[in-house]
Amino acid sequence: AWSKEQTIESLDQAQITLALSTLNGLILKIDHKNMSSNVDLNVRPDYDKLISDIAEYVFNYEVESELALETAKNCLIDTIGCGLLALQFPACTKMLGPVVEGTSVPFGVRVPGTNYKLDPVKGAFDIGCSIRWLDFNDTWLAAEWGHPSDNLGAILSVSDYVSQKRVEEGGEPLLVRDVLHCMIIAHEIQGILALKNSFNRVGLDHVVLVKVASTAIATKLLGGNLNQIKDAISHAWVDGQSLRTYRHAPNAGSRKSWAAGDATSRAVRLAMIVMQGEMGYPGVLSAPTWGFEDISFNKKQLTLHQKLDSYVMENVLFKISFPAEFHAQTAVEAAVKLHPEIIDRLEEIETVNITTHESAIRIISKVGDLNNPADRDHCLQYMVAIGLLKGDLVAEDYEDDVAADSRIDELRSKMVISEDKRYSAEYHEADKRSIANKIQIHFTDGSATEAIEVEYPIGHKRRREEGIPVLEKKFRKNLELTYKKEKADDIFNICINQNELENMSVIDFQQMLSLSQN
Q: Which of 206, 213, 439, 481 is 20 to 30 A away from residue 419, measured at CA?
């Protein structure tokens, strides 16, 4: 650790730590040689560095970025709006409400667009389930994919519960500003963990990151100290993690629409268990044989690729135009542009050439029967076919009645998928993060359309100025599905005003969105 010429006084802390760690390792090896081979060396470690780094960030971080706050406001309203839209679908609403009908709880959490008042765990599930159901709001793409807004299930549920409890005890409620701060923090944890750690490559679903981020922030909201946040995060990792099989052929199904609600509700439960005094597990990631890295991550080390700040919220992707899996957003945009050119020539189409990136091919390119809406909204070919046929794509287009149109499968059968290596590379480049697709249609007479290439969807940071007015229009439309026009207008006007929204109490915000009169 140091040369002969150096003295102990000349060493910095990192060198001292390395030296002590090396000596400790040597001592353990010597001791272990003197032990029987049928016993374990029971020396409890310090917390894994990754867990400590996340906990210290959650406990100490102060949001200073105005861009992050403004983006968080847009993320909040878009996420709420997507939840309201999902309430139009019985497959979603059947999942909502108390576990036992008629249950009443103190400080009940309100679920936007409903009259439910639920305990914080089920409240987190219902909010998380509804906002993710249609796969129509923010996305983060890296080595791992996911939707950081999923954490709003825990954030909004616990904030509502804590605020009501505070008022009952004579204190002040949390403000929506606090919710935005929590969103920025949760986005950052999930997004930075996703940069270089690919859970999908080991068969695990990205909602593990929702659970980790939501557990950390829920513990903070419940009043947890630094050590309690560490304890809670360790429980999130020690849980068995969800398999991705419900997102892929041949098992794609509706669980993918409530998986985030499940993760965020579990996070709240874990946070509450720790706040009751439950111990944590410091070496949950790194423990040989029994740790997460050995058991579930192919013995690779989990890393934080960069310092936790507000990078993810500032660069998050919004789904604005289409309720389509994000790898297909630009493909659908290209298909919609081609619609007028091909709609009267469907019988003449010979091939539909789709050039895309590796992640799209691995995740959403598939042939064969599509068995349910969840199967269809994760099929690149289906989404492109709808865009070509209709010049649009809406949530209802995944339902059985639309899928019965024989022209969809005819078009799918003519699609040829190929990878552009540049697209795949620029998908991962930090200064680009493109999600490129290109479509060209060839006809039987030898003619072809122009090759329509779209590298950045309208929800990308590079198109943010173009996208936000469309996002606000989308939010207003979703409000009008649930509330009478006068109330929808009032909610909209409050929500697009950054200062007014930030200074609104969480209790008032939740009551504004609730259908309950009390």
A: 206
Classify 202 as helix, strand or coil: helix
Integer Cα distance of 496 and 493 in angstroms: 6
Distance between CA atoms of residues 211 and 269, nearest Å: 10
Decide: pTM greater than 0.85: no
Instruction: Label residue 459 exposed, middle or buried (CB < 10 Å: 0-12, 13-18, 19+).
Output: buried
Structure-token pair, residue 347: 């019988």
Torsion of CA 478, 483, 489, 493, to 10 degrees: -70
CA 121, chain centre distance (Å): 18
Can you tell me which residue has the tokens 């003295």?
7
Alpha helices in 169-254 (DSSP H): 176-196, 207-221, 226-238
Query: What confidence tens digit (pLDDT) does each residue in 169-212 have?
Result: 999 999 999 999 999 999 999 999 999 999 999 999 999 999 99
d(CA 373, CA 254): 8
Alpha-carbon span 378 to 363, nearest angstrom: 8
SS3 260: helix
- 245-265 b/e (C-beta count within 10 Å ≥ 16 → b): ebbbbeebebbbbbbbbbbbb
